[in-house]
Fold:
Amino acid sequence: MSLMPNKPVPALDLSLVGGGRFSLAAEKPQHFTMVVFYRGLHCPICRRYLSELETLLPEFEKRGVSVVAASSDAQDRAEQAKSGWGLANLRVGYGLSITEARKWGLYVSSSKGPTSAGVMEPDLFNEPGLFIARPDGTLYWGTTSTMPFGRPHFNEILQSLDFVIPKNYPARGDA
Structure:
């Protein structure tokens, strides 16, 4: 399924590591909610990527952007990622179903065994994606990957937000 800018994104309601829930429908950011779908505990690139995001959370908050990371990992693996990767402030959602992942347009992979980090891949898991939704639940910006590589850089996203927010720049790709 391909998401379209200016159209509603799928519902997203996940348990959070440490308790509570993330509900995209309940988010009320000033400007946007950024959902970062990561592959899971087994992915060393995800570790670096989310660790960088952790350090930049205050910058996203300054721009009125709420942030959550989510994966199809089970609770125990998500807890290990949050604690082991030093994600003290980043909200980490878990239990994304493969059906939900596909609704978001995420690619799905099957296990190829243990990764270079020595952690077994789950039987099925989502590949990375990053989506920025408006407070009304419509898609503003989205990107997915078939591989763990080539993800958007958070500093570039911040620079882009500094451009688009004051100019009320329209979503693109909806023709």
About this structure: The mean pLDDT is 97. Residues 44-62 form the longest helix (19 residues). The radius of gyration is 15 Å. Helices lie at 44-62, 75-84, 98-103, 154-167.
